[in-house]
């Protein structure tokens, strides 16, 4: 009988869910789950789960009821905008629109942009596919040259927006956002930062850097309850067609005419996800209260040890996009000679209770360009990760690279699994999607 995990437990820097979760191992026994998949979805912070416990008894309709619970829910929803504003340091003309996730935020902004959008080819599909008039710049081998290529593209023809990731979801490498903002503005463009990977790990300050738009997801920010955010300059958002047509986005409706509300309501039609938004706000408040120098240092020490430990193993290759990235969030991506990424991930899970991500990370163009069409393995960490987790991962990879795996693995319908699978999954597969 495996132990029932407590709701949250003490990680090195914060209380998070799942850090004492026991998971079964193939062939019997169990161990504490080692979560190295924060970049896909991070565990919930204790402040987030506490906030939801507090709010649930008052869960009711938002904006539509005079009952006390409705008022509490409406207050939770509307005051969440302030938490986001404080967390990302908004400028006076910036507005917070709640969405489902980063993908939703970028699709919303794509309906508002009055012109071309310049993007890098290293972007997550969420920051590649929504733009209607995109001009794609191939990233160079260095950040310096990549920035120069972006500047050339902006200088070559007018663009309305430069849309860049704050940190690569493939390697965690960070782009120089303040510099790119200055360049975009100098060429008459605005800048959108895809903050999905950056905001959980680095302080972002919109007013100080001049960034015009920022998108991020609650589930990567320790608030896994289905809300996301688009923060940005009001004028484009007010001028655009409502993202969804329906109740809540309007001021007045007759059968002949609709008077739409301004942002944020304009783009938030329908009953909102008040619990997700309250969770996101609680995460913003909790992260804003943390000493980020300590967070950055904690992740830097763990990620460096992980990268160094893996690099020492024969046959392991670390993946980097640039030789000169100014900073990297807690992501280490690698391949092992002679092993498909899916097999490595299946082995780490089955024999060691370690969760990583494998595949092309919804960034097919760049993985294909750098010769990794078969994908790679991504280990990502955060507030609940400890050095013992890192040592476990290094030791497990060494064991596999040395040919000391103890189980067999096979591929069915493109997915690797232990053969036989003894852990009692009803589907018998690891799941169908290779994304995030
Ligand atoms: N951008 C980046 C850089 C990401 O890492 C992700 C998720 N992996 C997304 C966008 C999309 O986020 P979501 O799935 O929450 O919409």
Tags for this model:
Aspartate Aminotransferase, domain 2, seven-stranded mixed beta sheet, alpha/beta, single chain, 436 residues, 2 domains, Aspartate Aminotransferase, domain 1
Describe the structure.
The protein is of the alpha/beta class and 436 residues long. The chain folds into two domains: 8-36 and 291-419, Aspartate Aminotransferase, domain 1 (Alpha-Beta Complex); 49-288, Aspartate Aminotransferase, domain 2 (3-Layer(aba) Sandwich), CATH 3.40.640.10. The protein is built from twelve helices and 21 strands. α2 (68-88) packs across α8 and α9 runs parallel beside α12 (387-401). The radius of gyration is 22 Å and the shape is globular. The relative contact order is 0.16. 4'-deoxy-4'-aminopyridoxal-5'-phosphate is lined by residues 101-103, 124, 126-127, 165, 169, 194, 196-197, 217, 219, 362, 436.
Architecture of the largest domain, according to CATH? Answer: 3-Layer(aba) Sandwich
Structural class, by secondary structure, is alpha/beta
What would the average pLDDT be, to the nearest integer? 95
The CATH topology of the largest domain corresponds to Aspartate Aminotransferase, domain 2
Give a short summary of the structure.
By secondary structure, the chain is of the alpha/beta class. The protein contains twelve helices and 21 strands.
Question: What is the strand and helix layout of this fold?
Answer:
Elements: E1 9-10, E2 15-16, E3 22-24, E4 30-32, E5 34-35, H1 46-55, H2 68-88, E6 94-99, H3 102-110, E7 117-120, E8 134-137, H4 143-156, E9 161-165, H5 177-186, E10 190-194, H6 206-209, E11 213-217, E12 228-233, H7 234-239, E13 250-253, E14 258-260, H8 274-289, H9 292-311, E15 316-318, E16 331-336, H10 341-352, E17 354-355, E18 357-359, H11 364-369, E19 376-380, H12 387-401, E20 408-412, E21 415-419
Parallel strand pairs: 5-17, 7-8, 7-9, 9-10, 10-11
Antiparallel strand pairs: 1-2, 3-4, 6-12, 11-12, 13-14, 15-16, 16-19, 18-19, 20-21
The site of 4'-deoxy-4'-aminopyridoxal-5'-phosphate (PMP) has 15 residues, from helix 3.
């Amino acid at each position: 009988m495996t132990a029932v995990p407590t709701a949250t437990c003490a990680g090195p820097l914060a209380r998070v869910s799942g850090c004492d979760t026991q998971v079964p191992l193939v062939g019997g026994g169990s161990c504490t789950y080692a979560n190295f998949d924060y970049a896909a979805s991070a565990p919930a912070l204790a402040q987030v789960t506490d906030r939801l416990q507090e709010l649930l008894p008052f869960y009711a309709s938002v904006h539509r009821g005079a009952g006390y619970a409705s008022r509490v829910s409406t207050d939770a929803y509307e005051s969440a905008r302030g938490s986001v504003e404080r967390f990302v340091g908004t400028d006076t003309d910036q507005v917070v629109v709640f969405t489902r996730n980063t993908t939703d935020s970028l699709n919303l902004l794509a309906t508002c942009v009055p012109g071309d959008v310049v993007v890098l080819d290293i972007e997550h599909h969420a920051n590649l596919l929504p733009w209607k008039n995109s001009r794609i710049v191939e990233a160079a081998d260095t950040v310096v040259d990549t920035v120069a290529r972006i500047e050339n593209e902006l200088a070559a023809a007018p663009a309305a927006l430069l849309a860049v990731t704050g940190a690569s979801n493939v390697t965690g490498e960070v782009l120089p956002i303040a510099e790119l903002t200055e360049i975009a503005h100098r060429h008459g463009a605005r800048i959108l930062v895809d903050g999905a990977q950056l905001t959980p790990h680095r302080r972002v300050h919109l007013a100080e850097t001049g960034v015009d738009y920022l998108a991020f997801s609650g589930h990567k920010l320790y608030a896994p309850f289905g809300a996301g955010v688009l923060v940005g300059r009001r004028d484009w958002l007010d001028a655009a067609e409502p993202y969804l047509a329906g109740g809540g986005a309007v001021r007045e409706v007759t059968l002949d005419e609709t008077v739409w509300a301004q942002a944020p309501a304009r783009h938030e039609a329908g009953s909102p996800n008040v619990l997700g938004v309250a969770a996101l706000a609680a995460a913003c408040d909790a992260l804003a209260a943390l000493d980020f120098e300590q967070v950055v240092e904690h992740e830097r020490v763990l990620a460096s040890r992980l990268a160094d430990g893996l690099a020492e193993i024969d046959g392991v290759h670390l993946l980097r996009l640039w030789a000169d990235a100014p900073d990297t969030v807690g992501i280490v991506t690698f391949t092992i000679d002679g092993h498909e990424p899916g097999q490595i991930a299946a082995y780490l899970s089955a024999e060691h209770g370690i969760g990583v991500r494998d595949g092309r990370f919804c960034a097919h163009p760049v993985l294909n360009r750098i010769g990794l069409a078969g994908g790679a393995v991504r280990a990502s960490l955060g507030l609940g990760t400890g050095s013992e987790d890192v040592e476990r991962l290094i030791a497990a990879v060494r064991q596999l690279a040395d040919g000391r795996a103890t189980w067999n693995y096979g591929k069915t319908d493109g997915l690797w699994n232990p053969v036989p699978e003894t852990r009692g999954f009803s589907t018998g597969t690891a799941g169908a999607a290779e994304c995030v």
